[in-house]
Amino acid sequence: MPLTFYPPLKTDEAQCREKAQQLYRRWVLPTALADDRTQLFRPDVFKTFAKEGLTALAVPKAYGGSGMSYRCHYGVIEELAKGPNAFSVTIAVTNLVMGGLLAFGNDNQKQLYLPKLTSGEWLGAFSLSEPQSGSDASGLMLKAKKVEGGYSLTGTKCWCSNGTDADLFLVMGRTGIHKTQGISSFLVTKNTPGLRIGKKESKLGLKASSLTELIFEDCFIPEAQRLGKEGEGFTVALSQLDTGRIGIGACGTGLATAAIERMQKELNGNFGQSCPFKDTIAHKFGEYYARLQAVKSLITIASELKDQDQDIKVLASHIKLLGSDLAMEVSHDLVHFLGERGYQEEEEVERFFRDAKALQIVEGTNQIQRLVIAKEMEKMV
Ligand SMILES: Cc1cc2nc3c(=O)[nH]c(=O)nc-3n(C[C@H](O)[C@H](O)[C@H](O)COP(=O)(O)OP(=O)(O)OC[C@H]3O[C@@H](n4cnc5c(N)ncnc54)[C@H](O)[C@@H]3O)c2cc1C
């Protein structure tokens, strides 16, 4: 799409995007539709992307990452989200674990786990939600009882993306009664005795990414695997959600770009020639395109702030809200305007719609993003 207004991509940023597109066309696209139907995640494809340095772009080279900018990282997420979003979400979630390790891990933890994650040998998962605590994450109840040498975890987590495929879980549990300061975070490897991966959920979108329960039954976690200080777990979780929300916004702009391009192709082709309301569609999609540029610009700003290690909390909420709402609205209209064709699996248009809905919910629903922004606005006057 040549019509762009946000700051031009630097050479390395353009190269990362191009490489991601090439690999995507070669390794993801040929089986994307079938994998979506059969809910199949392909670890070998993830490893291929990792070997090319595309899954840990903003992680320092010292830990096997690519040592590049956040604009490269979010750019690749956006490129990949032009196809089924399960793959870009898998990369984004693994980055939540790597980000947590980088920000709160000690040297041993970083040396032990980061190279495995950056190489693609291991996949990461982030487990905060519980049946009774989604939006109000501080209501979590997974018990992390202090025992000799570590903690014993008991309880059930839910909706854990990458659940069946992950090797390392970043898990938030309760070590005290204080709502937020009574939460600690733990690095849990998949074969730890006492951890069971529960049922795999069947869901509307993001089908090639697994979503599971995690069941902890007197699961011993050595003290050395607590991430950050005791009581710092909620801060760990929120800090990674901030980074992750920009990623979800970038999934939204990737998906919206693909949907807008698809509509434009339709308008330029046979559909446009015979469509009696072509102008109505063109006007609507013109506005979507303008909104797309605005969200992309915010992602560019946020990436630069992340590279400077500045606070992006509220900006991340703007991006998550605007990017995922845009994806939802565009894909809704694409399905609707194409009528029966839009509703057919073969056309791949309904998949945009299903994936977009997930983007509005994951990593804090869009109502929660509005609350974050509204709270900040209280300080304005
Ligand atoms: C595809 C998918 C992948 C996910 N992956 C993960 C993962 O990897 N790790 C993880 O920990 N979790 C994950 N989740 C869980 C996700 O973070 C939660 O679903 C989300 O936080 C919402 O929580 P909930 O589902 O319990 O909804 P609830 O909190 O019960 O909310 C229900 C509705 O009420 C609204 N609502 C709630 N509180 C307020 C409020 N104060 N004001 C206004 N409206 C409100 C919500 O917006 C929502 O519409 C995933 C979810 C999905 C759908």
Give your account of this protein's structure.
This protein is of the alpha+beta class and 381 residues long. The chain has three domains: 11-118, Butyryl-Coa Dehydrogenase, subunit A, domain 1 (Orthogonal Bundle); 124-233, Butyryl-CoA Dehydrogenase, subunit A, domain 2, CATH 2.40.110.10; 235-377, Butyryl-CoA Dehydrogenase, subunit A, domain 3, CATH 1.20.140. It has twelve helices and eight strands. A four-stranded mixed beta sheet has the order 1-4-5-8. Helix 1 runs parallel beside helix 3 (70-80) and helix 4 runs antiparallel to helix 6. It is globular. The relative contact order is 0.12. The model has no long low-confidence stretch (mean pLDDT 96). Bound molecules: flavin-adenine dinucleotide (FAD).
In short:
With 381 residues, the protein is of the alpha+beta class. The protein has helices spanning 11-38, 43-51, 70-80, 85-104, 107-118, 233-268, 270-274, 278-307, 313-337, 340-343, 349-361, 366-377, and strands spanning 124-127, 143-147, 150-161, 168-174, 183-189, 195-200, 211-222, 226-227. A hairpin with an 8-residue loop joins β4 (168-174) and β5.
Q: Could you say which overall geometry the principal axes of the C-alpha atoms support?
A: globular
- Structural class designation: alpha+beta
Beta-sheet strand percentage?
5-15%
Main beta-sheet strand count, sense and barrel state: 4 strands, mixed
Number of domains: 3
The first-to-last residue Cα distance is 41 Å
- Can you list the strand order of the major beta sheet? 1-4-5-8
Rg over C-alpha atoms, rounded to the nearest angstrom: 21 Å
Assembly context of the chains: single chain
CATH topology of the largest domain: Butyryl-CoA Dehydrogenase, subunit A, domain 3
Query: CATH class of the largest domain, anyone?
Result: Mainly Alpha
Ligands (ions, cofactors included): flavin-adenine dinucleotide
- What's the count of strands? 8
The H/E string reads HHHHHEEEEEEEEHHHHHHH
Total helical elements? 12
Average pLDDT works out at: 96
The CATH H-level superfamily of the largest domain is Butyryl-CoA Dehydrogenase, subunit A, domain 3
